[in-house]
Amino acid sequence: MLLVKETILPKQGSPLIFLLAPIFAVFGATMAGVFILLPLLNITSGFRGDLLVIFYLLTIPSFSYIIGALASGNPLAAVGGSREMKLILSYEMTFLLLIAGIIMKCSQHFDLYSIIKTQQAGYPFIGSISGVLLFVVGIFCIQAKLALVPFDMPEAEAEITEGIFIEYSGAAYALIKLTKYIMFFILPAFLVALLMSGFRLEGIHIIWAILKVVAVVLILTLIRNTNPRVKIKQAISFFVVWMNLIAIIALVLIVFGY
């Protein structure tokens, strides 16, 4: 059924880039998922999951959405792309501070496998004051990365009618939805790996691993269902001022052993 759905190409813009953008989005989400899940599943062969590589892979879907929106030639898509770009510039620095805090807590280790093993050998990072602050920062960064309410300004159905995705249909739109579903799973799993000691796939720990991911998804869903959409200026101020401040406080606490 997916292949027979018609993909309508915009009259203005670049059809080739318009169609390639969802493919790049799926690629970025899939590769990030591989490098996150391999350490979580305790698979040590090959690449071990460098945090900086994962960080850059996780940005590919958002940039692909912007490129696709601008290639559509639709002014509403351009507005959505502009909002997405501003949102990226605001929350990515906060997300980078979160990763820096994790690296500091893990004695300067960059690979996700070592971070998970360090927590499993001791205690989850979320069990400290700095860990709780980093968890709060991580939750809101994920909320923005997934473009969930209150940070869904790039789509904003009531204002710009799907915004960056307004011209997408058929298989191309299905790839965008697939990317979002992949991100909705791997980002909570990534937060579990960073702060909640990852997965232990043995005995009762399997249920506990599932519950940790479900708990993060539940928090994201509660935030989405209990908050209105904010303005783009409010979102930028929220991350640049408040979330960055919380992240910096967490970094200071880490230096002092908290």
Question: How would you summarize this macromolecular structure in one to three sentences?
Answer:
Helix content is 70%, strand content 0%. It is mainly alpha-helical.
- How many distinct folded domains? 1
- Class of secondary structure makeup: mainly alpha
β-strand percent reads: under 5%
How would you spell out the order of helices and strands? HHHHHHHHH
Shape: globular
Describe this structure in words.
With 258 residues, the protein is mainly alpha-helical. It has one domain. The protein is 70% helix and 0% strand. Helix 3 (75-105) runs antiparallel to helix 5 (129-145) and helix 5 (129-145) packs across helix 8 (205-225). The model has no long low-confidence stretch (mean pLDDT 89).
Key features?
9 helices, globular, mainly alpha, 258 residues, single chain
